[in-house]
Amino acid sequence: MDDVYLTKEGYEKLVTELNYLKKDKRRQLSKAIGEARAHGDISENAEYDAAKDAQGMNEKKISELEQKLAHARIIDYENISKDEILIGARVKLKDLDSGEVFEYLLVSDAEADYEEGKISVTSPVGAALLNHKEKDIVEFRVPAGVLKYEVLEISR
User: Fold this and answer.
1) Fewest CB within a 10 Å sphere: which of 10, 14, 99, 136?
2) Which residue stretches of the chain are H helix?
3) pTM (2 decimals)?
4) Which residues are CB-contacts of 99 (< 8 A; sequence separation ≥ 6)?
């Protein structure tokens, strides 16, 4: 697995999620399996099968998080250019067609969350923004057509 670049907050969020899955969620699922087993014949027990499936999915998620954290590299803002769009940059953009202003934080795939304004550097928008500077005009193609943004501000 390649290195997974994370912000400090993103790293802490993954650690918190892993701890929850390993402690609380495991306990809940184990209890659910025990209760389903108590209902009798497990060979035809849908509740038992569902609980076992949920347990398997939880263990898979734990394994994935452990892998990400094992390969995690926390972004060092001190040694990153502050006037260029790179991973970890917060950018303010103006859509040149609508005049609408957007703000995004560029993160790795592991941290991307569009609802929170975090876009992956490998997404079409994120990849197009990389290495640009303030006042640059960035053009890129999306399924709906071509978008043009002006980079208004870059911060860390």
Assistant:
1) 99
2) 8-20, 26-37, 46-70, 124-129
3) 0.71
4) none
Domains of the chain: 4-74 (1.10.287.180), 77-155 (3.10.50.30)
| b/e 59-75 (16+ beta carbons within 10 angstroms → b) | eeebeebeebeeebeeb
Q: How many helices, marked H, and strands, marked E, lie in the chain?
A: 4, 7
Whether 87 contacts 75, CB under 8 Å: yes
Q: What are the backbone dihedrals phi and psi of residue 7, each rounded to the nearest 5 degrees, phi first?
A: -75, 165
With a CB cutoff of 8 Å and minimum separation 6, the contacts of 70 are: 1
Distance between CA atoms of residues 108 and 113, nearest Å: 10
Q: 2-35, pLDDT tens digit by residue?
A: 888 888 888 999 999 999 999 999 999 999 988 8
